[in-house]
UniProtKB/TrEMBL annotation, chains A, B:
Family: Belongs to the ROK (NagC/XylR) family.
Pfam families named in the record: ROK (PF00480)
Protein name listed in UniProt: Sugar kinase
Classification via PANTHER family: BIFUNCTIONAL UDP-N-ACETYLGLUCOSAMINE 2-EPIMERASE_N-ACETYLMANNOSAMINE KINASE, ROK (REPRESSOR, ORF, KINASE) FAMILY
Domain of life of the native organism: Bacteria
Membrane-crossing residue ranges in chain numbering: none
Keywords: Kinase, Transferase
GO molecular function terms noted in the UniProt entry: kinase activity
Length: 318, 318
């Protein structure tokens, strides 16, 4: 049985797994990146984690991994982690993370999640869509003609910092009125606390909004309006076949999707909106996309098309 | 000498020419589309115009045209003018416009202009840019990986209807705060008239703004601010290597470009803006792009790369 090692490296934690060519997934326990010890320590931590996953693969399948795929934050090419403000590294080659002799490929974290949603997730039936995970921050994977698109220099997808209220609230990034400052999960929690004095999670804000709390409803409604404004502009410029919302806020379900669809349609006068659907792969999208990168590194560009969502969701966890 | 027939069909008028494989351009006098007589009349007028240009080509070069390229408004595929609200036609095949037996290709008007700017105009050195002609309306050609991109169904590029002030002025399209309602040439003229009572052209508004007229400066400044807001969002989502501004308003030159560059940079806190440059091909971009479509129809995808801007600008006019 051939397999790849797949890793989704976030700012503070990382998630890894083994994924066979047939889509059998073994998810390992996540672990911290240790970024408080500096970028070199993160590289060492990633390398050690990849090594342990590869050891598990050798013992389970009796062969070397066919490839390694890594989803990493910041600016990234297939062979180099160019820069991450979050981690602090610069120009780290893929080989620094991986066992000698095993082919490796890197990808941008959000776009790698978008790749997985594209190949066998919520976007599997379309070529052109936006994958928008909404968590502590907001960034998107712009999937065009079947491929995640990062722009001229890999800085694309920053829809979280598109201004929806250009004379509105100041964002932590220094700009005015960014989508993220109204609609990220952390913004929803922060803005509720500012108005109510209560410290709660975004999930609780949604629950209170659904239960009729007027302050929670106002804050959550403003988040949805900000999303509708940003998505309307996206739709007008890029005419996607689909919008896929993921991340923690998507767990709000109908409380998010129903008003969002309605407000998006209300912001579009001369065209229909595309469907707006929840992501299929949840928080594992990045790791599963990294598995596709690992198979690409192994020379297999077709992996994933026949993977089943049920197998993935039922993947064993060691 | 081989040549193609190229036509840029707008709502009310059309421009045609003969373009040789070497980039020698003969521009013919434009003529009305006659849309007031209905869509069938427009098809007949286009067909007649194409026929006359082909006759000129036969008499000048002694051979049949190698192909015909047509830039048309609305929704369009390479072989069919699917729909235009402006003209009213539906599902007109390319053959309806062209002499029997001559291969033809259609393209979207703005994207065809963007194709020309991409192949031998202001975008010739980059693969990813926005071509934004600003005239009576605003629509863009989103050029990605060297090709104009129209989205899942060909409705893309409508950046003129992205909302820059979501609680702002109502646009003629029915939406609120569209870029076009602040920054098109007709919006600049209209908004100046509303505030001053004087009826002038956008060009005159710019001249008055430069001369120190406070109302003109305010209206033109608001147009530039609206452009900066829309372009900042575009840059964040798509990370273009370049922004190319064309159309009548680009003739304002430094009065437009200098404050626009400054305000765009001011709207971007954590990344540099791309260069913002004037278009190279002027109002002929659509016709020249149609010539490239004509060569593509003839099986020659490489035409244009060696065309010189000087030759194009000096093209003889019959």
């Amino acid at each position: 049985m051939t397999y790849v090692v797949a890793l989704d490296v976030g700012g503070t934690s990382m998630k890894g797994g083994l994924v066979t060519r047939g889509g059998e997934v073994t998810v390992l326990a996540g672990r911290p990146t240790g970024r408080e010890h500096g970028p070199d320590a993160v590289v060492q931590a990633v390398r050690a984690y990849v090594g342990e996953i590869a050891d598990l693969g050798r013992s389970r399948y009796g062969v070397e991994p066919a490839g390694v795929g890594l989803a990493v934050p910041g600016i990234v090419t297939a062979s180099t982690a160019v820069y991450s403000a979050n981690i602090g590294w610069r120009d780290v080659p893929a080989e620094a993370f991986t066992p000698p002799g095993v082919p490796a490929r890197l990808g941008h974290d959000v776009r790698t999640g978008g790749l997985a949603e594209s190949v066998f997730g919520a976007g599997r039936d379309v070529a052109d869509f936006l994958f928008l995970p909404i968590g502590t921050g907001i960034a998107g994977a712009v999937v065009l003609r079947g491929e995640p698109y990062g722009g001229a220099r890999g800085w694309g997808g920053e829809i979280g910092h598109a201004s929806v209220w250009p004379a509105g609230e100041k964002c932590a990034c220094g700009q005015i009125g960014c989508l993220e400052t109204y609609a990220s999960a952390s913004a929803v929690a922060r803005r509720f606390t500012e108005r109510s004095g209560s410290t709660v999670t975004a999930k609780e804000v949604v629950e209170r909004a659904v239960a009729g709390d007027p302050v929670a409803a106002e804050v959550f409604g403003e988040a949805i309006e900000a999303l509708a404004i940003a998505l309307a502009s996206y739709v007008l410029v890029l005419d996607p076949a689909l919008i896929v919302i993921g991340g923690g806020l998507a767990e709000a379900g109908a409380a998010l999707f129903e008003p969002l669809r309605e407000r998006l349609a209300g912001r579009l006068a001369f065209r229909e909106p595309p469907p707006v659907r929840p992501a299929a792969l949840g928080p594992r999208a990045g790791m599963l996309g990294a598995a596709l990168l690992g198979w690409q590194a192994a020379g297999d560009d077709d992996a994933g098309a026949d993977w089943s969502l049920d197998v993935l969701r039922g993947g064993s966890v060691s």
